[in-house]
Amino acid sequence: MIRVLIADDEDMIRSALASLLRLEDDLDVVAECPDGQTALAEAVRLRPDVCLLDLEMPGLDGVDTAARILRQVPSRCIVVTRHARPGVLRRALSVGVDGFLPKSRRAEDVAAVIRDVAAGRRYVDPEVAADALTDIRSPLTDRELDVLRAGQRGETIAQIAAALHLSAGTVRNHVSSVLGKLGVPTRQQAAIVARERGWI
């Protein structure tokens, strides 16, 4: 029996998917979580075989949740999303996620991916993988992406600096570099570009 944790902030989708997966003889949904923090706590407590994590959750998103789970529990993680952008795929793979698929897939397809991942294989949706091969890579450094990510909800320079343990001057330098590379006049516009291209 494959023990599965599901995390999605959309109650209807989470409960519907859990109900459908429970119809499978070899899958046991052991936890349904409304956010990443709860998923992390439940994963540590229950140690499921596979964690199925929505990308767009409040607080910790699916990739950040997977990264923290994988540091503490020998589970395998699959990220599902409505917006299967290549940049997000690269970010997910970089933290060790084992599966990546769009939410548009049927429940039986999700069940098949769970079985593959539980068996030690990796799965990436073929269309997303093809897009990733042709997508423009980010010209920004990891730290510049961190700055954009930390400030994407309108945080001040001081708040970003505190979150990243940097000085305000260093953050300003990174922002200036980002604006120059992307050719946009404001940090907000840079964050929009980065989100649309799946870099953050």
Automatic annotation (TrEMBL):
Matching InterPro entries: CheY-like_superfamily, Sig_transdc_resp-reg_C-effctor, Sig_transdc_resp-reg_receiver, Tscrpt_reg_LuxR_C, WalR-like
Keywords tagged on the record: DNA-binding, Phosphoprotein
Domain Response regulatory: 3-118
Residue positions where 4-aspartylphosphate is found in the record: 54
Domain of life: Bacteria
Pfam family of the protein (one): GerE
SMART domains reported in the protein's UniProt record: HTH_LUXR, REC
Domain HTH luxR-type stretches: 133-198
Keyword field contains NAD: no
Annotated protein name in UniProt: Response regulator transcription factor
Organism (species): Microbacterium wangchenii
